[in-house]
Amino acid sequence: MAWNGQRIRVWKKMPLDENYYGLGDKAGPMNRRNRAFTNWNTDEFGWQESTDPLYKTIPFFIGLRKGLAYGVFFDNTYRSVFDFGKESPDFFSFGAEGGELNYYFIAGPEPKKIIEEYTAMTDAPRCLPSGRWATSKAVIRTIRNRARGRSSKHCAKRKYPRTPSTSTSIISRAMPLSRSTGNTSRLSRK
Q1: What sign for the dihedral angle of Cα 22, 27, 32, 36?
Q2: pTM exceeds 0.70 for this model
Q3: Fewest Cβ atoms closer than 10 Å to its Cβ: which of 105, 131, 154, 163?
Q4: Three-state DSSP state, 88
Protein backbone atom coordinates (compact mmCIF):
# COMPACT_ATOMS: atom_id res chain seq x y z
CA MET A 1 0.00 0.00 0.00
CA ALA A 2 1.11 3.52 -0.67
CA TRP A 3 -0.12 7.05 -0.14
CA ASN A 4 1.13 10.04 -2.12
CA GLY A 5 -0.67 13.11 -0.85
CA GLN A 6 -4.34 12.33 -1.51
CA ARG A 7 -3.54 9.43 -3.86
CA ILE A 8 -3.79 5.84 -2.65
CA ARG A 9 -2.65 2.57 -4.26
CA VAL A 10 -2.50 -1.16 -3.45
CA TRP A 11 -0.27 -3.79 -5.10
CA LYS A 12 -0.86 -7.54 -4.95
CA LYS A 13 1.24 -10.45 -6.24
CA MET A 14 -0.02 -11.66 -9.61
CA PRO A 15 0.29 -15.38 -10.42
CA LEU A 16 1.34 -16.16 -14.01
CA ASP A 17 -1.78 -18.22 -14.73
CA GLU A 18 -4.40 -15.85 -13.28
CA ASN A 19 -6.85 -13.91 -15.48
CA TYR A 20 -8.95 -10.85 -14.62
CA TYR A 21 -12.45 -9.85 -15.73
CA GLY A 22 -14.71 -6.89 -14.96
CA LEU A 23 -14.55 -3.10 -14.46
CA GLY A 24 -17.67 -2.24 -16.49
CA ASP A 25 -17.65 -0.96 -20.08
CA LYS A 26 -14.12 -1.38 -21.41
CA ALA A 27 -12.97 -1.79 -25.01
CA GLY A 28 -10.75 -4.71 -26.00
CA PRO A 29 -10.54 -8.30 -24.80
CA MET A 30 -12.59 -9.40 -21.79
CA ASN A 31 -9.47 -10.70 -20.03
CA ARG A 32 -7.89 -7.56 -18.52
CA ARG A 33 -4.46 -9.14 -17.93
CA ASN A 34 -1.42 -7.12 -19.15
CA ARG A 35 -3.53 -3.97 -19.47
CA ALA A 36 -4.25 -0.89 -17.35
CA PHE A 37 -7.54 0.99 -17.05
CA THR A 38 -8.92 4.25 -15.72
CA ASN A 39 -12.34 4.11 -14.07
CA TRP A 40 -14.15 7.39 -14.66
CA ASN A 41 -17.55 7.61 -16.36
CA THR A 42 -16.94 9.24 -19.75
CA ASP A 43 -19.26 9.67 -22.73
CA GLU A 44 -16.77 8.98 -25.52
CA PHE A 45 -18.08 9.34 -29.07
CA GLY A 46 -16.34 7.33 -31.80
CA TRP A 47 -14.28 5.24 -29.39
CA GLN A 48 -11.60 2.78 -30.53
CA GLU A 49 -10.29 -0.43 -28.97
CA SER A 50 -7.64 1.58 -27.12
CA THR A 51 -10.06 4.25 -25.79
CA ASP A 52 -10.21 4.42 -22.01
CA PRO A 53 -12.16 5.43 -19.96
CA LEU A 54 -15.59 4.67 -21.40
CA TYR A 55 -19.18 5.06 -20.27
CA LYS A 56 -20.07 2.97 -17.22
CA THR A 57 -17.32 2.07 -14.75
CA ILE A 58 -17.61 -0.56 -12.06
CA PRO A 59 -14.73 -0.80 -9.54
CA PHE A 60 -15.08 -4.57 -9.25
CA PHE A 61 -13.19 -7.42 -10.88
CA ILE A 62 -12.95 -11.20 -10.71
CA GLY A 63 -9.65 -13.07 -10.59
CA LEU A 64 -9.81 -16.58 -12.08
CA ARG A 65 -7.12 -19.23 -11.69
CA LYS A 66 -7.35 -22.99 -12.26
CA GLY A 67 -11.15 -22.89 -12.09
CA LEU A 68 -11.20 -21.03 -8.76
CA ALA A 69 -12.34 -17.42 -8.56
CA TYR A 70 -12.42 -14.49 -6.16
CA GLY A 71 -13.72 -10.93 -6.44
CA VAL A 72 -12.37 -7.55 -5.37
CA PHE A 73 -14.64 -4.54 -4.92
CA PHE A 74 -12.77 -1.22 -4.56
CA ASP A 75 -15.23 1.02 -2.70
CA ASN A 76 -14.06 4.47 -3.81
CA THR A 77 -15.85 7.11 -5.91
CA TYR A 78 -12.76 9.05 -7.01
CA ARG A 79 -11.13 8.58 -10.42
CA SER A 80 -9.44 5.22 -10.05
CA VAL A 81 -6.90 3.07 -11.88
CA PHE A 82 -6.53 -0.69 -12.21
CA ASP A 83 -3.31 -2.21 -13.57
CA PHE A 84 -3.30 -5.94 -14.30
CA GLY A 85 0.39 -6.40 -15.09
CA LYS A 86 1.08 -3.57 -17.54
CA GLU A 87 3.40 -1.74 -15.13
CA SER A 88 4.95 -4.96 -13.79
CA PRO A 89 4.27 -8.59 -14.80
CA ASP A 90 4.61 -9.65 -11.15
CA PHE A 91 1.88 -7.46 -9.61
CA PHE A 92 -1.61 -6.12 -10.19
CA SER A 93 -2.60 -2.86 -8.55
CA PHE A 94 -5.50 -0.50 -8.03
CA GLY A 95 -5.85 2.92 -6.50
CA ALA A 96 -7.53 6.31 -6.68
CA GLU A 97 -6.76 10.02 -6.73
CA GLY A 98 -8.30 10.46 -3.29
CA GLY A 99 -10.80 9.13 -0.81
CA GLU A 100 -10.55 6.20 1.56
CA LEU A 101 -8.79 2.93 0.92
CA ASN A 102 -11.75 0.54 1.30
CA TYR A 103 -11.79 -2.69 -0.64
CA TYR A 104 -13.48 -6.03 -0.12
CA PHE A 105 -12.34 -9.55 -0.97
CA ILE A 106 -15.19 -11.86 -1.97
CA ALA A 107 -14.30 -15.55 -1.76
CA GLY A 108 -15.51 -17.90 -4.50
CA PRO A 109 -14.97 -20.50 -5.65
CA GLU A 110 -17.43 -19.99 -8.56
CA PRO A 111 -17.86 -16.69 -10.46
CA LYS A 112 -21.66 -16.98 -10.12
CA LYS A 113 -21.40 -16.98 -6.31
CA ILE A 114 -19.07 -13.97 -6.40
CA ILE A 115 -21.45 -11.97 -8.61
CA GLU A 116 -24.39 -12.83 -6.32
CA GLU A 117 -22.49 -11.67 -3.23
CA TYR A 118 -21.21 -8.50 -4.93
CA THR A 119 -24.75 -7.67 -6.08
CA ALA A 120 -26.07 -8.28 -2.58
CA MET A 121 -23.43 -5.90 -1.16
CA THR A 122 -24.03 -3.09 -3.65
CA ASP A 123 -27.71 -3.81 -4.32
CA ALA A 124 -29.48 -3.87 -7.68
CA PRO A 125 -32.79 -2.60 -9.02
CA ARG A 126 -35.72 -4.73 -7.91
CA CYS A 127 -36.98 -4.72 -11.51
CA LEU A 128 -36.93 -2.41 -14.49
CA PRO A 129 -40.24 -1.80 -16.27
CA SER A 130 -40.35 -1.27 -20.02
CA GLY A 131 -41.58 1.80 -21.83
CA ARG A 132 -40.99 5.52 -21.91
CA TRP A 133 -39.29 7.00 -18.83
CA ALA A 134 -38.89 3.46 -17.49
CA THR A 135 -35.57 3.93 -15.72
CA SER A 136 -36.48 7.12 -13.87
CA LYS A 137 -39.83 5.66 -12.81
CA ALA A 138 -38.12 2.52 -11.54
CA VAL A 139 -35.56 4.52 -9.55
CA ILE A 140 -38.21 6.74 -7.96
CA ARG A 141 -40.45 3.75 -7.19
CA THR A 142 -37.53 1.81 -5.68
CA ILE A 143 -36.50 4.73 -3.46
CA ARG A 144 -40.09 5.28 -2.24
CA ASN A 145 -40.75 1.60 -1.58
CA ARG A 146 -37.48 1.07 0.27
CA ALA A 147 -38.21 4.11 2.41
CA ARG A 148 -41.58 2.55 3.23
CA GLY A 149 -40.00 -0.86 3.85
CA ARG A 150 -41.87 -2.76 1.14
CA SER A 151 -41.23 -4.25 -2.27
CA SER A 152 -42.30 -2.79 -5.56
CA LYS A 153 -45.97 -3.40 -6.40
CA HIS A 154 -44.98 -3.40 -10.05
CA CYS A 155 -42.68 -6.39 -9.57
CA ALA A 156 -45.24 -8.32 -7.55
CA LYS A 157 -48.06 -7.64 -10.01
CA ARG A 158 -46.02 -8.75 -13.02
CA LYS A 159 -44.23 -11.55 -11.16
CA TYR A 160 -40.75 -10.32 -12.08
CA PRO A 161 -37.91 -11.88 -10.14
CA ARG A 162 -36.54 -9.71 -7.37
CA THR A 163 -32.87 -9.42 -6.62
CA PRO A 164 -31.85 -10.06 -3.01
CA SER A 165 -31.42 -7.04 -0.79
CA THR A 166 -28.35 -6.64 1.36
CA SER A 167 -28.24 -9.29 4.03
CA THR A 168 -26.02 -9.72 7.05
CA SER A 169 -24.83 -13.16 5.93
CA ILE A 170 -23.52 -11.79 2.63
CA ILE A 171 -21.89 -8.75 4.24
CA SER A 172 -20.20 -10.85 6.92
CA ARG A 173 -18.68 -13.16 4.27
CA ALA A 174 -17.21 -10.25 2.29
CA MET A 175 -14.13 -9.34 4.27
CA PRO A 176 -12.94 -5.73 4.33
CA LEU A 177 -9.23 -6.12 3.62
CA SER A 178 -8.21 -2.58 4.32
CA ARG A 179 -9.67 0.50 5.93
CA SER A 180 -7.60 3.63 6.05
CA THR A 181 -9.84 5.10 8.75
CA GLY A 182 -10.59 2.00 10.77
CA ASN A 183 -14.27 3.01 10.71
CA THR A 184 -16.52 -0.06 10.54
CA SER A 185 -19.83 1.80 10.65
CA ARG A 186 -20.19 1.26 6.87
CA LEU A 187 -20.84 -2.42 7.57
CA SER A 188 -24.05 -1.71 9.42
CA ARG A 189 -26.38 -4.66 9.50
CA LYS A 190 -30.01 -4.44 8.50
Answers
A1: negative
A2: no
A3: 131
A4: coil
